Inverse folding.
């Protein structure tokens, strides 16, 4: 071709959570039965959407209006409902015009980073959620900028590291936090979020807070919505229904934008996101219409409390299974539905393995592990030997070695067996060389 058509940041578009599926599917073809612990889809792991929510959706499907276009920013009734809920909390007050709907938060994230000036960087946590880190890196053409989450302090952010990096890198225009966090399951206390906002205020950067798991907090943790502490700092919260209803296939997420009226450049940037959505006309109609009806139903709060209790039980079960294993470090999850397992420094090497009986499977795995990170080596052997698909920690824009599991399996016996199989595999693997 006479011109190079490849985007400068294309190599940064990686998503380990999905990429490992190709390896697992190859193993399926070789006869390995796979237990999928790589992706946060409650439906795929057996959770049932409550009948009363389904009834609301069925009623909406019967209404012709849900088949048409809606306003570019989203259904006004739903935006008004969500803005009211933000305002009831206190803190920053918004209007329906500060709400923008997208086809899932993946769509929102692509536009948030895609319409930033190339030289403007967003610093995010490490371990990072791949959608954010890959989109930011692809936007800039460089590796994603990160601040450290400390595994020995329940994966809370290292604020000194965050502030120093912002202070001495004036290309940083914004900071990202994920609260509750994916992949660690940690929840940021109110004061910590306030301290992060204060850093943003002092250095003139805006704040992005991914709050998709904001209503899945347990084990005594208390947190805060960004709107409650943002003050006059420009920022946005990312929300959605995929993890709460749960309805991940709806692809319905939205931004709650704060203080664009106080910051003209930030307002122009938000306008660019709206204009980009305008080129698509609008986001999918049906799930938007469901929000006031489902979230406004008296049964919704009970639904949320029941799910919190469910995930608390599973989090404690997983923590109990892993906490006593030599060579690893785990923190008890407080939110979302993930747990990160960290291998202690120096316990992994490129000689360790797990026994694999099938010759073809063993040959395939051995062909993969020649030049990979040592935690990915463990993950591949776990896949080949036990058929369990987890995500390596180094796949989350992180130098630490470990892996992430989910708390989503609905079959109690299968979930317990999965934890037991993984812990036994860790012991065998660490002792192998």
């Amino acid at each position: 071709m006479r011109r190079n058509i490849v985007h400068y940041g294309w190599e940064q578009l990686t998503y380990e959570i999905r990429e490992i599926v190709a390896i697992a599917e190859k193993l399926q073809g070789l006869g390995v039965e796979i237990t999928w612990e790589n992706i946060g889809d409650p439906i795929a792991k057996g959770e049932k959407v409550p009948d009363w929510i389904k009834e609301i959706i069925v009623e909406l499907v019967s209404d012709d209006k849900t088949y048409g276009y809606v306003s570019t920013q989203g259904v006004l009734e739903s935006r008004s409902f969500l803005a009211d809920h933000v305002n009831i909390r206190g803190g920053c007050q918004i209007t329906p015009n500060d709400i923008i709907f997208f086809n899932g938060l993946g769509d929102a994230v692509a536009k948030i980073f895609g319409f930033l000036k190339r030289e403007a960087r967003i610093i995010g946590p490490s371990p990072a959620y791949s959608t954010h880190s890959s989109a930011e890196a692809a936007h800039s053409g460089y590796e994603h900028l990160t601040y450290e989450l400390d595994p020995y302090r329940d994966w809370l952010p290292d604020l000194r590291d965050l502030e120093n990096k912002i202070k001495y890198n004036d290309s940083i225009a914004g900071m990202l936090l994920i609260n509750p966090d994916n992949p660690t399951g940690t929840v940021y206390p109110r004061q910590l979020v306030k301290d992060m906002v204060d850093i943003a205020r002092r250095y003139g950067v805006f704040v992005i807070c991914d709050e998709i798991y904001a209503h899945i907090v347990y084990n005594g943790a208390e947190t805060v919505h960004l709107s409650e502490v943002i003050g006059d700092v420009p920022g946005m919260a990312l929300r959605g229904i995929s993890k709460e209803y749960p309805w991940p296939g709806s692809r319905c997420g939205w931004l709650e934008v704060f203080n664009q009226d106080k910051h003209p450049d930030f307002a122009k940037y938000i306008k660019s996101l709206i204009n980009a959505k305008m080129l698509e006309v609008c986001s999918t109609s049906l799930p938007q219409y469901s929000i006031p009806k489902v979230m406004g139903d008296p049964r919704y709060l009970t639904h949320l409390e029941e799910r919190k209790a469910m995930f608390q039980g599973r989090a404690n079960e997983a923590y109990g299974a892993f906490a006593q294993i030599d060579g690893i470090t785990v923190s008890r999850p407080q939110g979302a539905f993930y747990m990160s397992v960290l291998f202690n420094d120096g316990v992994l090497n490129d000689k360790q393995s797990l026994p694999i009986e099938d010759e073809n499977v063993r040959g395939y795995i051995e062909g993969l592990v020649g030049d990979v990170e040592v935690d990915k080596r463990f993950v591949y052997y776990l896949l080949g030997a036990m058929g369990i698909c987890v995500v390596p920690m180094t796949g989350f824009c992180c130098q630490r070695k470990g892996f992430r599991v989910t708390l989503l399996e609905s079959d109690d016996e299968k979930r317990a067996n999965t934890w037991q199989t993984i812990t036994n595999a860790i012991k065998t693997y660490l002792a192998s060389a």
